[in-house]
Amino acid sequence: MSDPVLRLEGIEKGYNHGKASEILVLRGVDLEVAKGEIVALVAPSGSGKSTLLHIAGLLDKPDAGAVHLAGHDLSRIKGRKGDRARTIARRQDVGFIYQFHHLLPEFTALENVVLPQLANGVGRAEAETRAADLLARVGVGERASHRPAALSGGEQQRVAFCRALANGPKLLLADEPTGNLDPTTSDTVFDTLLGLARDTGLSALIATHNLALAARMDRVLRLEDGVLVPA
């Protein structure tokens, strides 16, 4: 059996509240996400799910515990060497999708998907070909030359999906990816996301309030009192 794409071991994270107290939002979280597995994370607002996703994606550091991504323990490497290793891993191995698309407004849909590839050292011609292919696969290929303001909310989020997948990550992390859309558009856009993940064999950890969407994933976990439990 191959190593999981993501393994979290004993993750703890707290935040200072006032001068003398600390709120512990993660209390020894353990999690494995296998290759090709799509896991739903269900939790109310303020429970720490965004913190957990940020730690899993190497955007934040845990107070305790280990983060293994693609077989590498990236939480224990110290100093500049560690920062460099985490930056490379984020760029190459992790894709992020948020509730709000965060597309760059001055660039077209195609350019928004090209830019992360250029930052990763891909040549422009290759980056544009991959971007156009991804946009076509999610049904917005004909909108490639439009800027975000000219796209609907669902179209903008589809472009954000493509941007997250542009560098061929091993792990997709999504924080309420359809939470800003109306129910009908949400279902359609989620179908696109799920289909794209299945087609590419991508591993994913997707936080959502929508229990119906969560039930369509391979496994559903709930963040409760700072630990993960089966939902």
From TrEMBL:
<dbReference type="GO" id="GO:0089705">
    <property type="term" value="P:protein localization to outer membrane"/>
</dbReference>
<dbReference type="GO" id="GO:0005886">
    <property type="term" value="C:plasma membrane"/>
</dbReference>
<dbReference type="InterPro" id="IPR015854">
    <property type="entry name" value="ABC_transpr_LolD-like"/>
</dbReference>
<comment type="similarity">
    <text>Belongs to the ABC transporter superfamily.</text>
</comment>
<dbReference type="InterPro" id="IPR027417">
    <property type="entry name" value="P-loop_NTPase"/>
</dbReference>
<feature type="domain" description="ABC transporter">
    <location>
        <begin position="6"/>
        <end position="231"/>
    </location>
</feature>
<dbReference type="GO" id="GO:0044874">
    <property type="term" value="P:lipoprotein localization to outer membrane"/>
</dbReference>
<dbReference type="InterPro" id="IPR017911">
    <property type="entry name" value="MacB-like_ATP-bd"/>
</dbReference>
<dbReference type="GO" id="GO:0016887">
    <property type="term" value="F:ATP hydrolysis activity"/>
</dbReference>
<dbReference type="InterPro" id="IPR017871">
    <property type="entry name" value="ABC_transporter-like_CS"/>
</dbReference>
<dbReference type="InterPro" id="IPR003593">
    <property type="entry name" value="AAA+_ATPase"/>
</dbReference>
<dbReference type="Pfam" id="PF00005">
    <property type="entry name" value="ABC_tran"/>
</dbReference>
<dbReference type="GO" id="GO:0005524">
    <property type="term" value="F:ATP binding"/>
</dbReference>
<protein>
    <submittedName>
        <fullName>ABC transporter ATP-binding protein</fullName>
    </submittedName>
</protein>
<keyword id="KW-0547">Nucleotide-binding</keyword>
<keyword id="KW-0813">Transport</keyword>
<dbReference type="InterPro" id="IPR003439">
    <property type="entry name" value="ABC_transporter-like_ATP-bd"/>
</dbReference>
<dbReference type="GO" id="GO:0022857">
    <property type="term" value="F:transmembrane transporter activity"/>
</dbReference>
<keyword id="KW-0067">ATP-binding</keyword>
